[in-house]
Automatic annotation (TrEMBL):
Domain of life of the organism encoding this protein: Bacteria
Organism: Microvirga tunisiensis
Domain Bacterial mobilisation: 37-55
Pfam families to which the protein is assigned, alphabetical: MobC
Identification of the protein by name: MobC family plasmid mobilization relaxosome protein
Amino acid sequence: MSEGFRRLARAAGGLGPTFDGEAKAAIEELTAQTRAVGVNLNQIARAMNQGLIPPDPTFRKVLEDIASAIQAYDLVYVSMVARSRKLAVEALKDEQA
């Protein structure tokens, strides 16, 4: 019963679905990998801002490709929770009416 309430609360809060089993493990692993990439990108940005990395068009292209991949990845996450978020918003509107 508590699992059912937790899932309903997540949906109502717009936090998206709850994943179990293999899906949960895959999302956790992907999240950890993305976090590691983010840490590396922050270190690169810091080095660039400090002038430690000289301007390089190839390097810039690689960073732009990484940014594009992260944006695509973000869209996947958004699409995973979009239906749940829509239902939660509709439920709140119905409740307020």
